[in-house]
Every structure is written in structure tokens, then in C-alpha cells.
Please model this.
Amino acid sequence: MVRIAIAGGSGNVAQEIIDVLVATKKHEILLLSRKESPKDKNTAGVTWIKADYEDPKQLAQIFKGVHTVLSFVAVSPDAAGTTIQKNLIDASIEAGVKRFAPSEWASSGIEHLSWYAFKAEARQYLKELNKDKKVLEYTLFQPGMFINYATCPYPSSKHVHAMETPFDLNNRRFLVLDGGENDRVSFTTVQDLANVVARAVDYEGEWPVVGGIRGTDLTVGELIALGEKVRGGKPFAVERLKASELEANTFQASWIPKLDHPSIPAELVDMFSRVIVAGILLSFHAEAWHVSDEWNQLLPDYKFTQAEEFLTEHWRGKP
Model:
């Protein structure tokens, strides 16, 4: 049993992982949030703590006796956002934390993903800290794209928001980069991510710096074909968008997925939807979502859910 601190614990992905950690009945969990503890949340083994992420001294006090810190803090791509990640790292070192996972939980690369800029800063900061000797053991948990999004509007996990994306299996349509059908993407279920993180906490060896978690590798063309297969064999409507127009945000399409993520203010959803769609399609081409498989190798007995199995199950009987 170890004590685990989870920063940004009220987020979707964090909640999926917390559920699995709680179910093991092995660990004491400190759940940090900017908000007050919800009155209806009273889970055995979980303690809610209101934290000020801009106060590293307070964070260090909270982290005393903590073995592992997992960060899920959603931050803006600016100096303040970068400072929050550094504060969590500095507080972990001051408190003697053994292991740290920065707020990653998605792509390996960040090309064309401006909203992930803070991740590059955290990666570099951790690398510099350990340059001469190991100061803090850490891993970058990178599961690629959640295949759960491909079941929208039907939820396929307890907490992850069923959000529209450029691959719309419900309406049998895709937006793709012109010439990007061979772009390779790693798709993993959020359930597999949660199970791997729980096993990583128990893992007795040293964490790998890059912690790729790979469910299924598919090209965009293979994803279209799989979508057509699980949705009854009807051809999908595929719109191809030019890279230059995506980069300039001047692209025109008959539909734009509404990316109404809980972290995006409602009044900004339409604007961010265009930015994120362009970023996703361009980053597919840059192979930013094609992740490595370090945790697959370290946990050889764990069976990952494959994309076809997952989508077949979740689309069975749907109109």
C-alpha cells in the first residue's frame, strides 16, 4: 500500500483512473482539486483536498508521505499553465515523492497541438532536473487517442465525455487530411489506460521516462474501413481537407464536430472546435498520436482491448 496524490482529480480521465485505484483497495488516495470537496463524494480510501496549485509550499506539505503523484491538471498554454506543472514537480521533490507523472494522457508528439504546449515545458523541465543524477523518477503516460470517442454520442466509459471528433461513426462520416489516409494513429481504451496506471503504481521496477501505452495501431484509412464494417458495411462520406487551409483555419466542410469538452467554456466551443479539428488532422499526419509501447512491454500479461472488438461491441444494435 502506498499513498497516491492525484492533482486535477475531478477531471474525466482522472476519475476513470481513481475508480480503478480505489477498486484495488490497496492505496490511500489524496485527491487534489481547485474546488471544494463535493458533499455527495464520500469514497472509502479517498481524501479530497482543496489545493492552490500556485503555492508550491502548500503542495509540498500535502505531498509529505506521498509515494506517487499523478497530475491531470488541465492548464492553459501560457506561462501560468507551465508554472503549475513546475510547482507540482518542485513540491514533489521537496516532499520526497518517489514517482511523478506529469499531465500527459494523450499524444506522444505535440506538433500542431497548441493547447498541449505546456507539456513540452514540463518534459524539458523534468529532463533537466535528472540530467546529472536522478532527482525524481517519472513517466509520460501516453495512450494515444481514446477509441472511446469513436462511440459518440453513446458513452463507452463511466466518466470520459462522449465528444464529437472528425471521425463520426454515428452519422457515417469522416473529415480527413487530403492525402492523409496512411497517417498512423494509436487508439487505446480509457479503461486500458486506467488498468495500466494501476499496475504501474504497483510495478517494482523503474518507470520508463516515455511510457507509451498502445491498444491498436490504425491508419486513418483503416479506421474508415473499420467504421464502415462495424456500422453495417455502408460506405462513409469522407471529406478531404487541404493542409494549407487547415493551417490557416480557412477550411470549409459540410460539418464541424462540436468539441464540447468540459474544460472548454461554452461560449468558446465553436471557435475551439475549428482549431482542434485542424490540429488533430495535421497532428495525425505528423504522427503525434502514434505512440510507443513501453508499458505493453513491461506488463506482458495484460491483454489490451483491440479497436475492432471494442467498436463492434459498442455499436452492436445501434441505428
